[in-house]
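User: Hi! I have a protein structure encoded as tokens and I'd like to know what sequence might fold into it. I'm fairly new to this, so please keep things simple.
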């Protein structure tokens, strides 16, 4: 897999609270890592800072495939990119990567399906054109 297509990368610090009774990172922590990466992506790639916590989108669905366990002292990164843009939605594809012995090991693959949302009216809405243009420019779409 070509990891160079993921231009946005966030370093993750694993906390003791992220572990389960087997000593590896619990699945709920993976969802938290994806949330952190999504916020980082929105801020860094699209210069988006929400007003009153309104991100102009909600999560419609999260698909995660777990491939390799993570442990407390692993060197973990989340690589994120936009891989699809619709009229009222866009998809953020992420890889949760463990770096070990000079190798990048994929611990999980994910797609977060974002739906543009009007918080005030409680309805879906067309994608924010300015935001989508910044996203397309960054991703080369």
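Assistant: Happy to help. Inverse folding works backwards from shape to sequence: for each of the 141 positions I chose a residue that suits the local structure. Here it is:
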């Amino acid at each position: 897999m070509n990891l160079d297509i993921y231009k946005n990368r966030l370093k993750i610090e694993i906390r003791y609270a992220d572990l389960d009774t087997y000593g590896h990172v619990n699945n709920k922590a993976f969802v938290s890592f994806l949330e952190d990466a999504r916020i980082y992506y929105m801020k860094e790639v699209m210069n988006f800072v929400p007003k009153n916590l309104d991100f102009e989108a909600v999560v419609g669905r999260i698909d995660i495939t777990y491939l390799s366990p993570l442990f407390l002292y692993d060197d973990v990164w989340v690589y994120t990119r936009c891989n699809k843009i619709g009229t009222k939605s866009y998809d953020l594809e992420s890889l949760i990567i463990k770096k070990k012995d000079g190798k990048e090991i994929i611990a999980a693959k994910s797609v977060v399906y974002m739906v543009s949302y009007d918080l005030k009216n409680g309805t879906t809405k067309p994608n924010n054109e300015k935001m989508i243009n910044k996203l397309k420019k960054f991703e080369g779409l």
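A useful reference point when you look it over: The chain has two helices and six strands. Feel free to ask if any position seems puzzling.
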